[in-house]
Design brief:
With about 130 residues, chain A is an all-alpha fold. Chain A has helices at about 5, 15-20, 25-55, 60-70, 70-100, 100-130. The longest helix of chain A is centred in the C-terminal third of the chain and has 30 residues, at about 100-130. Chain B has one domain (about 35-145): Fumarate reductase/succinate dehydrogenase, transmembrane subunit (3 helical TM bundles of succinate and fumarate reductases, Up-down Bundle), CATH 1.20.1300.10. Chain B has 4 helices and 2 strands, in the order E-E-H-H-H-H. The model of chain B has no long low-confidence stretch (mean pLDDT about 90). Classes of the chains: A mainly alpha (about 130), B mainly alpha (about 150). Chains A and B meet through helix 3, helix 4, helix 5 and helix 6 of A and helix 1, helix 2, helix 3 and helix 4 of B.
């Protein structure tokens, strides 16, 4: 190539590269938090799946009593928080990969995060209302 | 880099982190990939089941909020979840969730640096499929026994 300078120049400083800061500044942290939440969700999801399955056909009173038990409520709250964190970061990656227009990508990510915050708060409030 | 003679070279035009060009294979694209081979089918299924679970989580939100709202609201959730549509949705959600979970464990092993041999990726892929079937059936056995 004729332009040797353009070929080998980068806008990123050597310090920025050493610190692993990509264009989005937090790519490594985002990737890592997806793994952390997935590891935490592994036992929580198995617990919730088995609990939900054994609550099949349970009455309103039985279900509310189960949700209201202190440890169940605590584990439910943690599961809700981690699930929506993991969900939002996963959908964000999918939108970043497949959305071609910038406004669709940014708008989609912001909308998903807003919906996740609202649903997580609604779920957590429901658990707290029953348990407290 | 010289002028490309073959369009397939476009999938080899990568860049190092300092911006200098390098000839190496890039991430696979749909048009050059056989999506029906086990490895790529499971790969995209990981994302599809993630999206399915994201939608299915609405059932958990509805279930919790209705339980907090009172017996009348809870009766509506119970009615939906015991309807044919609800049961079908829950069954699909169970299978999708188990697949995403087990395939996620496979991904964590890759992240830790294990299982990159081609025959290993196929073997662990088959484990994920078998595990999904077994876990889904077991979950529903528990549900059916609890219900009965």
């Amino acid at each position: 190539m004729a332009n040797e300078y353009a070929q080998n120049t980068t806008m990123r400083s050597p310090l920025g590269r050493v610190r692993g800061l990509g264009s989005a500044k937090g790519g490594t942290h985002h990737w890592w938090m997806q793994r952390v939440t997935s590891m935490a969700l592994l036992p929580l999801t198995i617990w919730f799946a088995l609990a939900a399955a054994s609550l099949a056909g349970a009455s309103y009173v039985e279900t509310v009593a189960w949700i209201g038990r202190p440890w169940n409520a605590v584990l439910l709250l943690v599961t809700i928080g981690l699930t929506f964190h993991h969900l939002a970061s996963g959908v964000q990656v999918i939108l970043e990969d497949y959305a071609n227009q910038e406004w669709v990508k940014l708008g989609g990510i912001l909308a998903v995060k807003a919906i996740c915050v609202l649903l997580a708060l609604a779920s957590a409030l429901a658990v707290l209302k029953i348990a407290v | 880099m010289s002028i490309m003679q073959d369009s397939r070279e476009a999938t080899m035009a990568g860049r190092r982190s300092d911006g200098s060009p390098v000839k190496r294979p890039l991430s696979p694209h749909l048009q050059v990939y056989d999506m029906l081979q086990l490895t790529s089918a499971l790969s995209i299924s990981g994302r599809i089941t993630g999206i399915a679970w994201s939608v299915g989580i609405l059932l958990m939100v509805w279930w919790l909020v209705a339980a907090a709202a009172g017996p009348a609201a809870f009766a509506q959730v119970q009615w939906f979840m015991s309807s044919w549509l609800g049961l079908l949705g829950l069954f699909g959600l169970t299978a999708a969730a188990w697949f995403h979970t087990l395939n996620g464990v496979r991904h964590l092993a890759w992240d830790a640096g294990y299982g990159y041999q081609i025959q290993d990726t196929y073997r662990t892929g088959r484990w994920v499929l078998i595990g999904t079937a077994v876990a889904t059936v077991l979950t529903w056995l528990i549900a059916i026994i609890a219900w009965a």
